[in-house]
Amino acid sequence: MVAGRRRRTPEQARTEILDAATDLIARHGPDGVGLRRVAEAVGVTHGLVTHYFGTYRALVRAVLERENERKRQLVRERMRVDGSVPYADGMTRVLFEILGDERYVRLWTWSQLHDWDVEKAPDSATDLSRLVDAIEEGVRTVLPEPEGPDRARIEMVVLLAMSGAYGYALGRRYWLTDLGHDPEEPGRDDAYRTALSSVLAAHLGGLTP
Q: Could you give the CA distance from residue 63 to residue 30 in angstroms, rounded to a whole number?
């Protein structure tokens, strides 16, 4: 049954649909939802959700794009706050904060497994490029070229940071247990983040093996 309906502006309706979809996906996973279920949660018709997003796949894409933009904003804010090197520490702090958001990790993992971005491959590349843009912008405010790292080095640090942070988020519970550690032990995540940060900071600063 659809909840009580009320008048909404187009922007309000779109935002509420995205909010409801994000919440439902977080609780049930993308495969456990659907346009009709989202419509019922918002209190609008199935047709209205279709009007704004077309298909469920497009709605999931919109949810992920909005979450990606929120994460990029976290990076921008962190870089402004840091104001100095080491940027790698700020970068990994943001990544670990992002990966503490279970709904985002679940949605991101699902999107990769289901190749949701095949139809919009250029946009998926743009998401990562924008993330690098945000980091490069922060680096340049303190270390303008040629003093600071070039774009290629920043990109490599981003790839290393994402691989290390995402891999740890997905496998930490199993790996730490297998190594004889309690995954819930206080400070365990911080110790890993500090180690990863030191490696990234060294590479970002120009040190190579």
A: 11
